[in-house]
Amino acid sequence: xxxxxxxxDLAGTRVLISAxxxxxxxxxxxxxxxxxxxxxGWALARTAAARGAEVTLVAANVEDAAPFGxxxxxxxxxxxxxxxxxxxxxxADVVVMAAAVADFRPTEVAADKLKKxxxxxxxxxxxxxxxxxxxxxxxxxxxxxxxxxxxxxxGDADDDVLGHARAKLARKGCDLLVVNDVSAGQVFGRPDxxxxxxxxxxxxxxxxxxxxxxxxxxxxxVVVPRLGSRR
Length: 231
Ligand code: CTP
Ligand code: CA
Description:
231 residues, alpha/beta, 26% strand, globular, binds cytidine-5'-triphosphate, binds calcium ion
């Protein structure tokens, strides 16, 4: 296999990852969406598979081809992502929520295309809160299963980035939270970004500015010692 040693520290581990960004339908042709590319989720899947894991990717609106060796389950909306993750979580040793899930969806979805000048011409969009997939996966977590969340945070008048992130980790109840500092100038327009991995057990792992594969590898490096003999 050539020169480098091939790390197989995820051999036999079943990994379930959500990636991409959900689209919340307004009518048959329109949706509310977000800019998530799915690339961080793809990097997590690729690196886990390379280290021996059995990977299922629940992919919301990602065009990229499936990473080698991974099973891809395509979904559209937050409701579909929620159902797909809930159906598969029981088999997973590690669950990673890298998808950007819309917090809200249009309360009503028009059966027919909304038209200009019609009696139904909309003037506003009413929104309804979507289920919190991560919180539901944590609630359904079986013994020994590790649940990983992601968060993009900025500091503000109330708290700094890590303060907000620690509060989110506690609120969500997951085992690890991968935190991206998106304060002005930190991420936008830059190819690399630094992350901090917070663990519920208090451990803090800083990952210096790096590409998405390096961030993904760092996440698995934090996960592996926490898997113990659970598999
Ligand atoms: N998430 C989820 N379901 C949602 C919203 C978010 O599973 N409806 C997950 C994301 O995939 C991510 C984590 O929760 O792993 C944190 O997402 P974030 O948007 O930072 O958290 P929210 O609870 O939505 O908080 P905020 O109000 O700051 O957006
Ligand atoms: Ca959110």
